[in-house]
Specification:
There is one protein chain. Helices cover 27% and strands 27% of the residues. By secondary structure, the chain is α/β, with parallel strands linked by helices. The protein folds into two domains: 127 residues, Rossmann fold (3-Layer(aba) Sandwich), CATH 3.40.50.720; 105 residues, 2-Layer Sandwich (Dihydrodipicolinate Reductase, domain 2), CATH 3.30.360. The strands form two sheets. Strands 2-1-3-4-5-11 form a six-stranded parallel sheet, with helices on both faces. Strands 7-8-6-9-10 form a five-stranded mixed sheet. The radius of gyration is 18 Å and the shape is globular. The model has no long low-confidence stretch (mean pLDDT 94).
Length: 245
């Protein structure tokens, strides 16, 4: 059986990458390619909708697809914990939605390691850098990392984040300062810096080329078809062999 796929954001870099990868996979066929001027009804015949658009357009696309009973794979940034909670109230029961802030395996492993380490350090900050054209900041990956680290620290309490009233101290997400850079020549980069008595620990990941997303995309395309609920994070598709906090 062939899975019919609609790609929302098909003309963008990620949309083109998805179409290339899907064209190389058995059992998948792209039947609709949506751009900014497309009518959402164009995705109605799809079994799976891939959303790689922008934070403003994404919610309407996802909700429309879910009401049609299609599985949804979200690769768009901006899906914070509060937005995911809101989505869960708006989509029918039994619809599979997989939200992936970052398709890179290395990025997911970096976030997982940072989540483990967060329980042991009280000073934590994130620096993330992306291409100049990235519309949102902080990145979805940084937001997800901060939320997971904060969740792991529930018994330890909030991180030490002094002088947060100063704009240069970054945007706080789940109590953790995030500093965003938007630069030419950068694909994607994230550093989590954890400070303790007499030491710092830096967990850094660099995406050098978009080909880093290929394996995560392939895994996600297969995984979303087996879901009947909302799942966030590639780490929940992978078998990391550890117990997550």
């Amino acid at each position: 059986m062939t899975t019919r796929v609609a790609i929302a954001g098909a003309r963008g870099k990620m949309g083109r990458l998805f179409e290339t990868i899907i064209g190389e996979l058995d059992g998948f066929d792209v039947v609709a390619r949506l751009g900014r001027e497309s009518d959402l009804d164009e995705l109605n015949d799809a079994d799976l909708v891939v959303d790689v658009t922008n934070p403003d357009a994404s919610p309407a696309i996802v909700e429309h697809a879910a009401r049609q009973g299609a599985a949804v794979l979200i690769g768009t940034s901006g899906w914070s914990e509060s937005r995911v909670t809101s989505l869960s109230n708006d989509v029918p029961d039994g619809v599979g939605i997989l939200i992936i802030p970052n398709f890179s395996l290395g990025s997911v492993l970096g976030t997982t390691l940072a989540t483990i380490a967060a329980r042991f350090y009280d000073s934590i900050e994130i620096i993330e850098a992306h291409r100049q054209s990235k519309a949102d900041s902080p990145s979805g990956t940084a937001v997800r990392t901060a939320e997971l680290m904060s969740g792991a620290r529930e018994s330890a309490g909030p991180v030490a984040a002094p002088h947060t009233d100063q704009r240069a101290r970054g945007q706080q997400v789940a109590g953790i300062p995030i500093h965003s850079l938007r630069l030419s020549g950068v694909v994607a980069q994230q550093e989590v810096i954890l400070g303790g008595t007499g030491e710092t620990l830096t967990i850094r990941h660099d995406t050098i080329d978009p080909s880093a997303y290929r394996r995560g995309i392939e895994l996600s395309l297969h995984a979303v078809l087996g879901l009947n609920e909302i799942v966030v994070g590639l780490e929940n598709v992978l078998d990391l062999g550890i117990s997550r906090a």
